[in-house]
Write a structure and sequence with these properties.
Blueprint lengths: L1 H16 L24 E14 L6 E2 L8 H8 L6 E9 L7 H13 L2 E12 H13 L18
Parallel strand pairs: 1-3, 1-4
Antiparallel strand pairs: 1-2
């Protein structure tokens, strides 16, 4: 029994110690010169669409009348810090009421013409109609004793 404990302790020591490795600092081995590249700073127009779709209830994504993600503008501005060659940008959120509003359509068209590049962002928010219907039915019938989590899915839009 004593030999078994000694062998087990020796094996655990070998397993946990592993290979011995040493670290040396690598200095002055790779000398690179910083190349100064002049970036052409551009004007960009972000054309943003927020869609909503209930899977199982409707087949066509609906354009929302409000941005579908809470605090989308804060997230958008934070992500623009990563893009260093943008001189100026304009963003336009397409609304479901733009069909009836020619002034907003003209504004969108004018922003497209004055920008160097136009980036179209389509954000699709999906939910399962069956899960939301059954979840709300259970939650309502039990007077919210059984809470139901309502989840949204944001799949990539590949149009």
């Amino acid at each position: 029994m004593r030999n078994y404990i000694i062998i087990t302790a020796a094996l655990l020591t070998l397993i946990y110690s592993g290979c011995a490795s040493f670290r040396t600092d690598v200095t002055d081995l790779y000398k690179t010169e910083k190349s100064e590249t002049s970036k052409n700073r551009v004007n960009i127009f972000f054309d943003i669409y927020h869609y909503n779709q209930s899977i199982g209830a409707d087949a066509i994504p609906k354009l929302l009348h409000y941005p579908g993600i809470n605090s989308f503008n804060d997230i958008f501005k934070e992500s623009l810090k990563q893009l260093t060659n943008i001189k100026q940008y304009d963003s336009f959120t397409n609304l479901s009421t733009d069909v009836e509003n020619p002034m907003r359509r003209k504004l969108r068209d004018s922003l497209v013409t004055i920008s160097d590049y136009t980036i179209k962002l389509e954000i699709l928010r999906e939910k399962s109609f069956a899960k939301h219907f059954i979840g709300s039915l259970v939650s309502f019938s039990t007077l919210s004793i059984i809470p139901i989590g309502y989840t949204w899915n944001y799949p990539p839009c590949l149009y």
